[in-house]
């Protein structure tokens, strides 16, 4: 067996409770305890090896390239923690069996608990810091699930979120710190890191690393000023609190400090930060605990205080202090777990946790009371119990401090003061609850709990007493190996675990603490009155309030930033573009030699002017949509003339046909839109938009100017030279379209086809109101289909088809081709729709445009695939010349088939769009599918 | 050439021909939806097989070129398969499988042409990954855009139309700018083949270098818009939360197309060999990447719906990927590619979950308000939990590993303080946002209302979402292999000279 099997076993153990829940609570509980039980036994079996000085390390590769190995080890420190985690864990599960009511989902509860236990155990066993961090985060998450187990309660959800936020933040800081350590040391293996203390401490980034790691530790261990989440984690079921706040969760932070003690401690910075935080936490926790009326609240603050104590010890500048810290970790875990369980019993059997109501329970549950008293005495540091021993060591260590300079005397004084309060709140826990009169308004009559619910407490209390009486025998060796691991030495400083050290200063301080505590408790009512003058604050509400405020502020900022206005989005995009292209233009200062310009004729100038004016007119009249449409169609027409003028007849033809189809399409769409739109732009907006438009236009014009005035070396020459020999056509434009760049054309006709499908899809959904009149209220004419138009169109159709056929055929060598031919056919067909109406066309033209599109693109695609048959890549064209009698030589080319596909797609897509837009106002309108 | 030599074009042809066939008999028609479903499922699986074949082929031997029309570089359109392209084709197909299966729950019958459009969308995405030609890239952009316009209004509603209008108009402007860029680039370099441009760029005249600079800047706008980089991100959260769940899930890869193009173009063309234009976008990308993370993170925490939150998470992931890009080392690129794969699948799963959760919450949908109890509380809770851990970058799932490798790749750089603060703080905010979202969605109930009338989850929904969620643990478990793969992809991408050699362009000079 190995450590990996232990972790794996526990992971399987997560599922066990879920699947055994159906067999009843008892079986469920015992089945759940199986995995941790075996793990516990196994770790115990390794004790002798560790005592013998062995250091067990096991590796598994996981992601070595990022330094993430699965690497587990067991040394003295890990052993101590592992036993606490598993041992107390087992007791907690046993306890929960009685604590959870029958209605509660124990399977889920146990599953979370085991998950948490696995994560916690993985932290202490990890020999790889990244792996440790993963486990660290899993404890945060699983504790979130545990704290929010009663998720229907608002306080549970809030408490859990708060814990997750604080510990999550610390976890991320820790990750940064660990990555920096990994970078400094060159490894994430703990065994390497722990040997590199010098390197880390002397590195320039040491302060950053220390801060980040301590942030992780302090948030997890609820050190001041991050302590506020802990009391609210008490919203969890009590077994969870007993587990999280004694041996595990909060101890993870302590463990982290102990683990990194050899590499991070020993500097002035460590001393100042850790000691100060510990001292503050110690005092604050002890003081506040006294005023908590809630049993668990008192225990929560007492936990904070004890965590502060341990932190303070780890911060102190002597090696013995670290030993004392380890000792107190064990003791605190034991007595605090038992106290939480006792509090749980009291709550469970009396229905309240309020110490103002809980009085005189001695008469109802003397046995539980006895157990609780022992544990509380240990917490207070009363002699003969374990808490006393470590507290003595603590007090002794505070005496030897010099690092606060002349103010070093404050440390023992403040420590004693904290001790006073610690005794006082322990007294309160006992006296208020078990004595002090009669119970007040309890929901239930208190009684002793079920026999075995007390068992876990008994076990822990016995340990308290045994350790208190026979410390050396009980834990001497554990403490020794743990201390050796933390101090990284084989020869420990001398310390004595005996109960009696003679009359010395620490004993006097203990005495003062006990006496003082009794006095403070006796005069507690005065203190309560004093304390009641302060405003009661609830960290949960404050935290939630802060989060809410931050979110609402961010919300407002976000709304200002993202107004949901498309105009703003476009403006942002254009301004961004202007900035990006303006910068290089602005910085360019190399001499610039434009090439010689052609002469410009009067016609060209006037066409240019017309184009500009129409474009401007489109802008000016854009609120009167029909006028704007006419204006912009002029731009398109001039453009096609320009194409024709500058030797691009294909483009001219295409532009012309596209222009016609587009304008008809827009006219159809305009029918359904308001004829005018109100002016909505504020003057400042007009100025802004004009500015953006002018800047953008200016930049684009500049770029155009640059590249039309510069000599161009391009691959275009290749296309001209190869279009006849390689592509079999003299019209280079068409050869580019169907051959050189046939894949582009295939893609573009597909785009056209998809556009048609998309428009159909959209129209099928739209329910448009049918306008009956224009914007001045004049009703639309009901005259339909003037006969002359009908007859002329009908006569024109064959002619138009013939023209398109001709254009199609000659495309490869002369201006033309499938695209233009398709548009011509489409326009001719649209003409029929306009002249005759949808109802007339429908029975006469039985072509399904969807099929036409699908077929067209498929033909084009399969023309491409066909070349595979000849061993050539997709779309390799083939052509040859044949001599046919009477007709003469003709050329056959695969490109022609491709062009047929283009033709069909263009016809299908254009007609699908136009016909369906046209049909919107008729009963033939498209329908939704489902 | 034998059958398998044509493999590079298959990821384009399969969805194209498949999608077209679904428009024709016997697949067309309202009542034939079942046959379309089978066919669509077969198509996406075939694409994945193809992608795996390509990936295996380029990993085990050299990268593939495919000269469409047998026109050699730099004249014809060249498809270029390197490990990065193949990996992303696989990712798209994998995502496609989840999306297609999920939509069998009935989403595919809520409007016309669902399955063909999904195929066309995938075709455009695959094409954009595979092409080595800038104009061809434009064409594939058009294909994926026009398909996405149509898919966005699927099962239309008012809010979809509004989002669609924003999306379409911004992208039309984007397409125009793309054309400006291509014209300018051709005017400067006289070529459209990416490798050819890269080779010719350093020896351009001053004025042509200026034009090439402008072309590069314009392309950044185009790719930035596609990838939702600040300040071009505004459309994304709205669009993605308006779209139907499986469509939003498929869109999760679309921003990555933009990121991919940024990596491709600014590593090969404007990378370290580009002379005076070398890495000229890096100073621009740095602040924008950080700003994207900030804006996305703020969006995550203020979003009132799970879908909106997920949309903003996509913006955060875009910023993160841009950081990975801006670091400019093959290590960082490899880390970014791993993160890219992870974040695509995680956000896709979250979009699906948002709809599934919303369906069971009555009118509250996926808004973070008090509402009824979920019928499938355990299943949805578990899925949400895993997805949230993935998205927030918590261990032990892929999100953690993705973030970790990016952080590691930044640890030796001067800019690490920025990378660390941005990524870690946004992680924290994401954790907070998810904890608030989860506790509200799953635990804040109005009374113990009877939930038996809530609609059940269909098994297709569960299958779809589980396929995508499986990526979380699998990408982490097989992290070593995956990172090795993305590492190879990054090295190949950064090896610009090898590409030029492979194209056989060097001899031209």
Automatic annotation (TrEMBL), chain A:
Domain MrpA C-terminal/MbhE: 685-772
Gene Ontology biological process: monoatomic ion transport
GO cellular component, one term: plasma membrane
Membrane topology value: Multi-pass membrane protein
Pfam families: MbhD (PF13244), MbhE (PF20501), MnhB (PF04039), Proton_antipo_M (PF00361), Proton_antipo_N (PF00662)
A single MF term (Gene Ontology): antiporter activity
Sorted UniProt keywords: Antiport, Cell membrane, Ion transport, Membrane, Transmembrane, Transmembrane helix, Transport
Domain MrpA C-terminal/MbhD: 611-675
Domain of life per record: Bacteria
Start and end residues of each Na+/H+ antiporter MnhB subunit-related protein domain: 788-911
Membrane-crossing segments per the record: 77-97, 109-127, 133-151, 163-188, 200-219, 240-258, 270-291, 298-316, 322-346, 367-386, 406-427, 459-483, 503-523, 569-588, 600-621, 626-646, 652-674, 686-708, 745-764, 785-808, 814-831, 852-872, 892-917
Principal subcellular localisation of the protein: membrane
Residue span, NADH-Ubiquinone oxidoreductase (complex I) chain 5 N-terminal domain: 62-110
Residue ranges annotated for the NADH:quinone oxidoreductase/Mrp antiporter transmembrane domain, each copy included: 126-404
Subcellular location: Cell membrane; Membrane
PANTHER family hit by this protein: NA(+)/H(+) ANTIPORTER SUBUNIT, NA(+)_H(+) ANTIPORTER SUBUNIT A
Protein name stated in the entry: Monovalent cation/H+ antiporter subunit A
Organism: Opacimonas viscosa
TrEMBL record, chain B:
UniProt protein name: Monovalent cation/H+ antiporter subunit D
Lipid bilayer topology: Multi-pass membrane protein
Domain of life: Bacteria
Coiled-coil residue windows: none
Chief subcellular location: membrane
A Gene Ontology biological process term: ATP synthesis coupled electron transport
Family classification: Belongs to the CPA3 antiporters (TC 2.A.63) subunit D family.
Domain NADH:quinone oxidoreductase/Mrp antiporter transmembrane: 132-428
Location of the protein in the cell: Cell membrane; Membrane
GO CC, one annotated term: plasma membrane
An example Gene Ontology molecular-function term: NADH dehydrogenase (ubiquinone) activity
InterPro entries the record matches: CPA3_Na-H_Antiporter_D, NADH_UbQ_OxRdtase, ND/Mrp_TM
Transmembrane region(s): 12-30, 37-55, 75-101, 113-131, 137-155, 167-189, 209-235, 247-269, 281-302, 309-327, 339-358, 379-397, 417-435
Keyword terms of this UniProt record: Cell membrane, Membrane, Transmembrane, Transmembrane helix
């Amino acid at each position: 067996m190995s450590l990996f099997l232990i972790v794996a076993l526990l992971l399987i153990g997560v599922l066990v409770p879920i699947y055994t829940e159906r067999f009843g609570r008892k079986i469920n509980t015992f089945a759940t305890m199986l995995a941790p039980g075996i793990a516990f036994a196994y770790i115990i079996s390794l004790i002798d090896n560790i005592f013998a000085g062995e250091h067990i390390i096991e590796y598994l590769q996981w992601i070595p390239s990022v330094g993430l190995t699965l690497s587990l080890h067991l040394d003295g420190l890990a052993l101590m923690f592992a036993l606490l985690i598993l041992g107390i864990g087992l007791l907690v599960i046993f306890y929960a069996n009685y604590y959870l009511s029958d209605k509660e989902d124990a399977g889920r509860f146990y599953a979370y608990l085991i998950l948490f236990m696995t994560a916690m155990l993985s932290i202490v066993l990890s020999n790889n810091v990244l792996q440790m961090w993963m486990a660290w985060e899993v404890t945060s998450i699983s504790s979130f699930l545990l704290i929010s187990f009663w998720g229907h309660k608002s306080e549970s959800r809030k408490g859990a979120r708060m814990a997750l936020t604080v510990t999550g933040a610390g976890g991320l800081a820790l990750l940064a710190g660990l990555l920096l350590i990994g970078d400094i040391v060159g490894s994430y293996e703990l065994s390497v890191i722990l040997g590199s203390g010098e390197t880390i401490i002397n590195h320039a980034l040491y302060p950053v690393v220390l801060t980040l790691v301590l942030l992780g530790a302090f948030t997890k261990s609820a050190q001041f000023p991050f302590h506020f989440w802990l009391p609210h984690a008490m919203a969890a079921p009590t077994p969870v609190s007993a587990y999280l706040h004694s041996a595990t969760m909060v101890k993870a932070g302590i463990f982290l400090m102990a683990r990194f003690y050899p590499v991070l401690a020993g500097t002035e910075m460590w001393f100042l930060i850790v000691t100060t935080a510990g001292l503050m936490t110690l005092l604050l926790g002890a003081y506040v605990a006294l005023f908590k009326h809630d049993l668990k609240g008192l225990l929560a603050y007492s936990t904070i205080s004890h965590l502060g104590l341990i932190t303070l010890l780890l911060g102190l500048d002597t090696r013995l202090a670290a030993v004392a810290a380890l000792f107190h970790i064990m003791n605190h875990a034991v007595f605090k777990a038992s106290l939480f369980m006792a509090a749980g019993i009291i709550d469970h059997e009396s229905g309240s946790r309020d110490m103002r109501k809980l009085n005189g329970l001695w008469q109802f549950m003397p046995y539980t009371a006895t157990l609780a008293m022992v544990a509380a005495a240990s917490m207070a540091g009363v002699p003969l119990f374990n808490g006393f021993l470590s507290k003595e060591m603590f007090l002794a260590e505070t005496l030897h401090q010099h690092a606060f300079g002349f103010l070093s005397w404050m440390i023992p004084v403040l420590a004693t003061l904290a001790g006073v309060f610690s005794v006082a709140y322990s007294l309160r826990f006992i006296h208020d609850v078990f004595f002090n009169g009669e119970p007040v308004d309890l929901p239930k009559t208190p009684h002793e709990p079920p026999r075995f619910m007390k068992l876990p407490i008994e076990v822990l209390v016995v340990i308290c007493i045994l350790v208190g009486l026979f410390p050396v025998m009980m834990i001497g060796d554990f403490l020794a190996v743990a201390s050796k691991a933390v101090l990284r030495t084989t020869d420990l400083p001398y310390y004595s675990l005996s109960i009696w050290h003679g009359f010395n200063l620490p004993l006097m301080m203990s005495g003062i603490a006990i006496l003082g505590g009794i006095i403070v408790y006796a005069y507690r009512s005065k203190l309560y009155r004093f304390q009641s003058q302060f405003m009661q604050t609830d960290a949960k509400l404050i935290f939630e309030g802060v989060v809410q405020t931050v979110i609402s502020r961010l919300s407002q900022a976000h709304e200002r930033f993202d107004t949901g206005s498309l105009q703003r989005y476009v403006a942002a995009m254009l301004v961004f573009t202007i900035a990006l292209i303006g910068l290089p233009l602005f910085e360019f200062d190399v001499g610039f030699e434009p090439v010689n310009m052609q002469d410009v004729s009067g016609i060209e100038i006037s066409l240019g002017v017309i184009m500009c004016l129409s474009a401007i007119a489109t802008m000016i009249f854009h609120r009167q949509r029909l006028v704007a449409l006419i204006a912009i169609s002029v731009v398109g027409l001039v453009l096609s003339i320009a194409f024709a003028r500058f030797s691009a007849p294909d483009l001219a033809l295409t532009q012309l046909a596209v222009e016609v189809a587009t304008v008809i399409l827009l006219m159809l769409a305009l029918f359904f839109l308001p004829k005018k739109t109100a002016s909505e732009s504020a003057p400042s907006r007009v100025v802004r938009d004009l500015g953006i438009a002018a800047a953008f236009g200016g930049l684009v014009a500049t770029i155009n100017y640059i590249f039309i005035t510069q000599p161009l070396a391009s691959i275009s020459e290749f296309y001209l030279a190869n279009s006849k020999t390689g592509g079999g056509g003299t019209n280079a434009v068409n050869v580019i379209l169907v051959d050189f760049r046939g894949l582009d054309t295939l893609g573009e006709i597909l785009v056209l086809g998809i556009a048609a499908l998309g428009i159909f899809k959209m129209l099928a959904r739209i329910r448009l109101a049918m306008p009956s009149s224009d914007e001045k209220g004049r009703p639309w004419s009901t005259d339909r289909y003037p006969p002359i138009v009908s007859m002329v169109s009908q006569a024109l159709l064959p002619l138009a088809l013939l023209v398109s056929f001709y254009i199609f055929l000659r495309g490869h060598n002369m201006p033309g081709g499938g695209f233009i031919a398709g548009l011509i056919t489409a326009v001719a067909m649209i003409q029929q729709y306009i002249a005759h109406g949808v109802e007339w066309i429908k029975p006469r033209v039985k072509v399904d445009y969807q099929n036409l599109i699908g077929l067209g693109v498929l033909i084009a695609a399969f023309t491409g695939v066909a070349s595979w048959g000849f061993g050539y890549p997709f779309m390799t064209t083939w052509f040859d010349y044949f001599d046919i009698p009477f007709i003469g030589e003709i050329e056959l080319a695969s490109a022609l088939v491709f062009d047929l596909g283009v033709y069909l797609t263009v016809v299908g897509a254009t007609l699908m769009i136009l016909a369906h837009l046209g049909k919107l106002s008729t009963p033939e309108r498209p329908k939704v599918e489902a | 050439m034998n059958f398998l030599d044509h493999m590079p074009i298959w990821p384009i042809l399969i969805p194209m021909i498949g999608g077209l066939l679904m428009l024709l008999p016997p697949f067309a028609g309202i009542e034939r939806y079942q046959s379309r479903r089978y066919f669509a499922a077969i198509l996406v699986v075939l694409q994945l097989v193809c992608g795996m074949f390509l990936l295996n082929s380029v990993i085990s031997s050299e990268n593939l070129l495919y000269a469409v029309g047998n026109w050699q570089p730099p004249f014809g359109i060249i498809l270029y398969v390197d490990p990065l392209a193949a990996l992303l084709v696989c990712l798209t197909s994998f995502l496609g499988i989840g999306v297609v299966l999920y939509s069998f729950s009935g989403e595919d019958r809520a409007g016309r042409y669902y399955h063909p459009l999904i195929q066309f969308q995938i075709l455009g995405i695959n094409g954009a990954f595979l092409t080595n030609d800038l104009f061809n890239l434009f064409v594939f952009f058009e294909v994926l855009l026009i398909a996405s316009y149509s898919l966005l209004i699927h099962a239309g509603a008012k809010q979809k139309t509004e989002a669609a209008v924003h999306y379409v108009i911004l992208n039309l402007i984007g397409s125009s700018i793309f054309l400006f860029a291509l014209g300018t680039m051709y005017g400067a370099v006289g070529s459209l083949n990416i490798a050819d441009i890269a080779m010719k760029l350093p020896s351009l005249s001053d004025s042509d270098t200026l034009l090439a600079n402008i072309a590069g800047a314009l392309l950044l706008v185009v790719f930035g818009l596609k990838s939702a980089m600040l300040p071009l991100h505004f459309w994304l959260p709205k669009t993605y939360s308006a779209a139907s769940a499986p469509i939003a899930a498929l869109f999760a890869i679309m921003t990555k197309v933009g990121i991919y193009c940024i990596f491709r173009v600014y590593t090969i063309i404007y990378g370290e060999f580009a002379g005076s234009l070398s890495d000229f976008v890096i100073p621009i990308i740095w602040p924008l990447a950080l700003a994207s993370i900030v804006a996305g993170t703020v969006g995550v925490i203020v979003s009132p719906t799970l879908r909106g939150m997920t949309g903003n998470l996509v913006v955060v992931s875009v910023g993160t990927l841009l950081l990975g890009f801006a670091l400019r080392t093959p290590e960082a690129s490899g880390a970014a590619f791993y993160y890219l794969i992870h974040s695509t699948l995680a956000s896709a799963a979250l979009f699906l979950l948002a709809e599934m959760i919303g369906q069971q919450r009555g009118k509250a949908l996926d808004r973070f308000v008090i509402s009824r109890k979920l019928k499938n509380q355990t299943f949805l809770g578990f899925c949400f939990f895993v997805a949230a851990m993935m998205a927030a970058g918590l261990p032990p799932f892929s999100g953690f590993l993705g973030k970790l490798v990016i952080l590691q790749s930044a640890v030796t750089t001067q800019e690490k303080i920025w990378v660390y603060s941005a990524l870690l703080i946004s992680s924290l905010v994401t954790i907070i946002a998810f904890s608030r979202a989860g506790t509200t969605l799953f635990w804040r109930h109005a009374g113990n209302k009877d939930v038996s009338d809530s609609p059940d989850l269909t098994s297709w929904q569960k299958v779809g979402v589980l396929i995508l969620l499986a990526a979380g643990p699998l990408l982490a478990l097989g992290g070593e292999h995956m990172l090795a793969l993305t590492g190879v992809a990054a090295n190949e991408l950064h090896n610009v000279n090898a590409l030029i050699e492979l194209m056989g362009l060097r001899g031209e000079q």
